[in-house]
Amino acid sequence: MANLRFKYWFLVFGCLLFTVYCLLVVSLSGCGDDNVVASIEVSPSSATIGINKAYAFSAVGRNSAGFLVAITPTWSADAAIGSIISTGLFTASGASGEGKVTATSGAISGTASVTITTNGWLTGNVTDTNGSLVIGTMVYLKENRTLYNGETNNSGDYLISGIPPGTYEARIDANGRTQSSAVSAEVTITSGETVTQDFIVTVPTTTSTTTTLF
Q1: From CA 51, how far away is CA 165, in angstroms rounded?
Q2: Which residues on adjacent β-strands are paired with residue 119?
Q3: How far apart are CA 200 and CA 137, in angstroms?
């Protein structure tokens, strides 16, 4: 009887081990379809690109289990927005518009949304005269403060997007706390270009009063 019990539990334990082994094999092999492309991801999934500018896209394939699969995709782009070569390097057209870039492998494809713009960008960094980052201050274009402005982040960087080509005055106002006087700079924005303009603001001076006791 004891021998039968031993054989029974030995068989149960063996079956459990075999089940675990099979599950591991299936998991690691991607359910048997490890080299079959089930989806394609294009990166970035969306992009805003200046007219006549080059921009690099990339693509990865995944099988049905979500594991990476090596692919050499065929690239295509809507004719209205530009052209793309076999490496994924896209060149925008000379006019604004919207469309898609597509990577295809066999019957599977992935897309990215693309916006072509004639506008430009203004970016930069703001520090004070002590070399410290200025966080949370507003940089704006004097010509339209409400529409074109950007706030510095934790790195002291700001970004103003969608600016029509032209010459503007970029400004930072005094606030009595982090900067004692306004600063400004003339910037010229061209189609599809990012212009960098850094600012250094003056730190307010503090005065102390000494009281003499008699």
Answers
A1: 12
A2: none
A3: 12
pTM over cut 0.90: no
Is residue 72 located within the same domain as residue 127? no
Residues 173, 180 contacting (CB under 8 angstroms): no
Domain limit, last residue, from 117, 132, 163 = 117
Question: Would strands 108-117 and 46-50 be described as parallel, antiparallel, or unpaired?
Answer: parallel
In angstroms, the CA 126 to CA 146 distance is 20
Closest CA to 49 of 95, 2, 6: 95
Span 106-152, pLDDT tens digits: 999 999 999 999 999 999 999 999 999 999 999 999 999 999 999 99
Q: Are 99 and 141 found together in one domain?
A: no
Domain that holds residue 166: 120-201
